[in-house]
Amino acid sequence: MTKVCPEIEDMTLPEPVITVSADVSFASNHFPSYKLGPDNQIVEEPKEDEKGPSVQDTVEKESELLSDQHKRLSVRDLASKFDKNLAAAVTLADEAKLKEVASLEGHVMLKKLRDALEYMRGRMDGQNKEDVEKAISMVEALAVKLTQNEGELIQEKFEVKKLGNFLKQASEDAKKLVNHEKSFACAEIESARAVVLKLGEAFEEQERSSEASRAQGPDVEKLVEEVQEARQIKRMHHPTKVMGMQHELHGLRSRLQEKYLNSIKLHQEIKRVEESKSCPFVLEGTQSLGSCLRIHVSSDDAIDLSNCSIQWYRAACETSRREAISGANQSVYAPEPFDVGRILQADIISNGQKVTVTTDGPIDPDSCLQTRVESLMRKSNSEFNVVISQMNGQDYASRTHVFTVGKTRIKLSRGWITKAREIYSTSMQLCGVRGNIKAPARALFWQPRKSLTFILTFESEQERNTAIVLARKYAFDCNVTLLGPDD
After folding, report:
1. Rounded distance, CA 406 to CA 203, Å?
2. Phi, psi angles (nearest 5°) of residue 458
3. Residues β-bridged to residue 411
4. Which CATH class is domain 370-477?
5. Same CATH fold, 370-477 and 279-358?
6. Helix, coil or strand: residue 18
7. Nearest partner of 288 among 251, 342, 249, 252, judged by Cα
8. Which contiguous run of DSSP H or E holds residue 186?
9. What is the DSSP string of 302-323?
10. Percentage helix, strand, coil, to 5, in the chain?
11. What does residue 394 show for φ and ψ, rounded to 5 degrees?
């Protein structure tokens, strides 16, 4: 059943009013605040004019809201309309009952009239008999029409009854809604009255405080002067040596920390020097990204590195678990971006004895690499000039090609001829070269798909490392991790 309810307007509650405390009264309604200037001078903060709405405006606004509340309570018209409709439905029901009684009486009269005509037809003949038969047919037609009217009357009675039930239920719902709205409106009116009373009290308290502050104006000015004088005396006698001692203490702590770190580094270097005296091999080269590390023989013994077994490792620190770098089994290794922040080690097995050489510390990053990568990531594709050094493990002499690193794929081409073009997938591999080739710090290993590998030489070490970082970032966005073989 459809519920009919009056329109309910949104009621905006009055804004909260900050009450004024009368504990202490001053000329400016609050205690003046001060702060120290550049030369420790007392500077008064600028006064802010924080005037809220006047009490008269607030009372007028509350009066309008109360008038709207009064209008919301006049919903009796809706209830009276439902009551009138319900009375009309009852009247229709009574009329339907009267029509039903009249229909029943009509059937009785027609039956009596038909019986009388049948009796007369049996006693008449000739023209009179035909007239009687016509009259009987007319009576039967009237009976049929009366039956039809009775069916319509029953249907009308059903509709009237249905309408009466609907109006009765709607009237009850309207009364419930009216009662609910009345209680809600009364509560809001009481709340508004309480707010108005609070506003009146706040206004009276503000008037009293303003009168008291006007009476105490000279005392407040005298108090301000005394406070300023006291602050000046305190500033003149304030000890300044404490600040100097604090700065000196902070400087001593920073120096001690630097000396402690330097002592740790010296201790590690002394330990490595002592170990290197007994170690026949030494690791040479700048230990940073873009350089090349080489293993050399430091002893007088004629040891041939080509007859030694070499394996490079990377580790987070000297005591952590090492990770073997697959394919890095030569005396030369060029660190790649994945090695930044890690320590590199190389195990050398010669004549059945294993010797380990280690970098002095983690591999340092390239300071300009991050800026270069961020500038290229604003583009959709980044192109690098390369030369194909090897293809499928065989030496390959070629001219300059273009190595294009995109957001979804990598392409190697020269002009309109494309050597390889593949999207990022799990079968793709990309890392720095781990073999003993010419210029390993500028070379890159790329496997676009199985059974196809390239070793590309870039124009500079930074270009190679930039291409590796870009490709790995784009592949990570495609949920693919680009690493070297068996990483």
Report:
1. 72
2. -90, 175
3. 404, 421
4. mainly beta
5. no
6. coil
7. 342
8. helix 127-215
9. ---GGGSEEEEEEESSTTSPPE
10. 50, 20, 30
11. -110, 145
User: How distant, in Å, are the alpha carbons of 11, 240, 245, 254, 260 from that of 249?
Assistant: 64, 15, 6, 9, 16
Whether residue 462 has pLDDT greater than 90? yes
CATH of the domain spanning 279-358? 2.60.40.2700
Q: Give domain limits for the chain.
A: 34-45+52-215, 279-358, 370-477
State the pairing for strand pair 309-315/323-324.
Answer: antiparallel
Only one residue has tokens 């005298």, namely: 222
17/80: higher pLDDT: 80
Q: Per residue in 24-45, pLDDT tens?
A: 444 444 445 555 566 555 555 5
Answer whether 290's CB lies under 8 Å from 462's CB. yes
CATH code of the domain occupying 34-45+52-215: 1.10.287.1490
DSSP string, 388-446: EEEETTEE----EEEEEEESSEEEEEETTEEEEEEE--TT-EEEE--SS-SSGGGEEEE
CB contact burial 134-158 (16+ within 10 A = b; e otherwise): ebbeebeeebeebeeebeebeeebe
Written as six digits, the tokens of 423 are 């999207």
- Could you give the CA distance from residue 351 to residue 304 in angstroms, rounded to a whole number? 11
Which residues lie closer than 8 Å to 430 by C-beta, 6 or more apart?
410, 444, 445, 446, 447, 468, 471, 472, 475, 482, 483, 484
List, for residues 323-380, the tens digit of each pLDDT value. 889 888 888 999 999 999 999 999 988 888 888 888 888 999 988 899 999 999 999 8
Q: Are 468 and 430 in contact (CB under 8 A)?
A: yes
